[in-house]
Every structure is written in structure tokens, then in C-alpha cells.
Amino acid sequence: MSRQNPKVGFVSLGCPKALVDSERILTQLRVEGYEIVPTYDDADVVVVNTCGFIDAAVEESLDAIGEALAENGKVIVTGCLGAKADVIRQAHPGVLSISGPQDYASVMTAVHTQLPPKHDPFLDLVPPQGLKLTPKHYAYLKISEGCNHRCSFCIIPSMRGDLVSRPVDQVLQEAEKLVKGGVKELLVISQDTSAYGVDLKYAEREWRGKPYRTRMTELCQGLAELGVWTRLHYVYPYPHVDEVVPLMAEGKLLPYLDIPFQHASPRILKLMKRPGAVDKVLARVKKWRAICPELTIRSTFIVGFPGETEQEFEELLDFLREAQLDRVGAFAYSPVDGAKANDLPDPVPDDIKEERLERFMEVQAEISGMRLGDKIGKRIKVLVDHVDADGAVARSAADAPEIDGVVHVENGQKLRPGQFAEVEVFTADQHDLFARLPG
């Protein structure tokens, strides 16, 4: 007897936090017996998980919704842009439903309305760790939603709300399931990882018979028990960040910190509503590296923020040269609808913003090239992501997937994705390392 499952197409846009939202929705769909299909033609309805952080992301999301409507006709919209339902309705009045980020119940209700589920518990088997959109060997572990900061260039709190932390035992249980399912690297994400647990007053919970506080340091201590790579993203430089660097030195966490500094001028940081003690930041970076010499620090910056003078931009370049950050991303300031920074005086002309961005990246490329060059001749541990006839593409402890560089292993054809290997670096450029398997 044949059994026709209702079929759902899915489009996932945006950052890793949105990707985790997509994974949760997809897992629930499969639990309820829906089949996830890869084409518009095969789908009975399409879910689009949108991004709405910057204007380019809004346009991408609206284009994706329009394409789904044109190709399928039945579209459910969720995600960050869903917080601006009027924008979506104005562009695409024919969508079936609109909901904001993390509103999984509304998505499922909309799907149920269009396609009642036909669940068969004997056939619709979902792995205990849920469905993942990342490769099997790494996964994003979201520890909280929302943010308590009110950075003037950012509208995330208006979309995702204030900080809501997940209890530490729930996070550790999820991490344990992921590892049992084959994950070799956990990427800890949130809007503000350092603030984890402050809303819960660092409540204590039990995992594996031991007490853990709902706090970043204790969470990291628990994750270290799982014996896989653990990488921290979106870490604000609060004082207690100092507590996790010794864990990195001891090999319990990857020696990697993703800290969005955004700028180095105290006045510009104040306009951004960001912490502004640049001298203290430099001193702490030196202290961290003294404790853990292998530490990789990545960051993001905004150039051409409203009111930024040439002198303040030079302060930013001086900071780069002093801090010697390993990995850096930068953006020319772009107004975001609803952001307070739009009201600031003295906007920087577009041509100057682009010229400053180019100068910034030239300085950082030189720094990155030198720091990668220091690894030539050394043996390093890598995690393999991809293998083909040309060799393997892997990542070291210094490389987060999709945002940092990679390690090209020229004789790695016999390696497997998800496998750890020791390689010897023989050259480098400004972004990547090139290595061989020893012997």
C-alpha cells in the first residue's frame, strides 16, 4: 500500500543562528511526517526562512520569496524579516503566512493549515540529534536568543528581542546528542555569547551527575568533557572572557575567539554604543596570548561610520597594527532601516567609505599574511571538510567554516570528510595554508 507524504520545500537564508532555526523547523517537520524536497516543482508548500539585518539581506530575502511564489505559488515566510511583515506584504501580498524569528509554532501552524500531517511513527524516523543543514562532522550550537545591547547600527534586538538563555543542561544534552551523531566540531553561537545566563541569574543545573551554572565558563567546562573541537563565536570582551583562555591553553577548547570589536576610536565606539576602552582591549589581547600563545583572534569592523574622521580611521589602522589580529572581516557602513545610527550627523561619502575599506583590508592582508607565514614548516592538526582528485580541503583550529581560511592538503586524496589529520605546512598566502601529509 503506497503512502503519500505531504512535501515541503525549504529555503534557508542568513547567519548561523538562522540556520539553527531552520534545522529546528526541519526536524519538527520530519517528526510530523513531512517529506523535505529539494525543488519547487515537488513541493506542496515552500517555507522561506529570511534574513533582515542589512538592506542587501532584505533584498535577498524578498527576491527569494518572489522566486518561491513564481515557481510554486504557496509560500510561508518566517525569520528576521518576518518582524517587518508590512515590508513583505507590500512586496508579496500573496504569501500564506508571516512569522518572526524563533516562532516555530507559527510556522508549524501555517504548514498544518495548508498540509495536514500524515505521520507514521514506524516510517518517519528522525535521528536523535535532529536534522542538520551543515556537514555531518560539524554543527552550530545555539545557546541563547536575542541581545540586551542596543548598538546604534544594529536592529537585531527589535527582531529577536532581549537575551533569552537556554538552561545549561539543555545545551549540554543537545551537544552530547550531536557528538553521538558524529559531530567532531561544535560552533557555539548566540548574539552575545559572553552574556550567556545573565538573564537566568546563572542558574545551576545538573548534567552527567555534576552541577553546572548557566554561564559561559561553566558551559565551556562541560563541553570540554565531550572530547571534540569547541569553537566560540560572538564573544563580547567582558572581564570573564579571561576565564576561558586558560581552558584553551589546556587544550579543552579550541584556542579561538571571535570578538566583534567594530572600531578602535573611543568616540566612534561611543556613537556605536559599544565598549570603548581600546587600551584595555590591547592589554588583554597581549595577556591572552601570553597565557595561550596558539590563540587565534578573529574580529569584524565597520569603516565609514557616520562622523568618522580621517584621524579616527587612522586610529583604527593603528589598532590593527598593534593588535595583530589573525582573522578580520570589515564592512563599509550601510544604513539599516530602523537603526539609530541613521540619525547621526556627518555621514561619510560612499567613495570615501570604499577607499577606507580598501586601505583597511590592505593593512589586514599584510598582517594576516605574516601570521600565516609563521606556520610554514610546522605540523598542525586539521579537520577535513572536502576531498576530491586535487586533494583535501581542511581547517585548522584557527579556521571557522565559511568565514576564515582553509588548509589545502595537496596529497590528501585518501582522507575522508570528518577525519582529523596531522599535516605539514609548506607555504601560505594571505588567507590560506598549503600543506602535505607527512611521509
β-sheet strand percentage: 15-25%
How many separate structural domains? Answer: 3
Shape descriptor: globular
Distance between the termini: 57 Å
Average per-residue pLDDT, rounded, comes to 91
Low-confidence stretches: 121-125
Gyration radius, rounded: 23 Å
| Residues in helices, as a percent range | 25-40%
* Lateral arrangement of strands in the main beta sheet: 2-1-3-4-5
Major sheet attributes: 5 strands, parallel
Number of strands: 20
Summed up, the helix count is: 12
Query: How does the helix and strand content classify structurally?
Result: alpha/beta
Structure in words:
InterPro entries: Elp3/MiaA/NifB-like_rSAM, Methylthiotransferase, Methylthiotransferase_CS, Methylthiotransferase_N, Methylthiotransferase_N_sf, NA-bd_OB-fold, Ribosomal_uS12_MeSTrfase_RimO, rSAM. [4Fe-4S] cluster 1 binds at residues 15, 51, 80. With 439 residues, this protein is an alpha/beta fold. It contains twelve helices and 20 strands. It has three domains: 7-114; 138-374; 378-436. Helices cover 32% and strands 22% of the residues. A hairpin with a 2-residue loop joins strand 10 (204-207) and strand 11 (210-213). Helix 11 runs parallel beside helix 12 (350-373). The radius of gyration is 23 Å and the shape is globular. It starts with 6 loop residues before the first strand and ends with a strand.
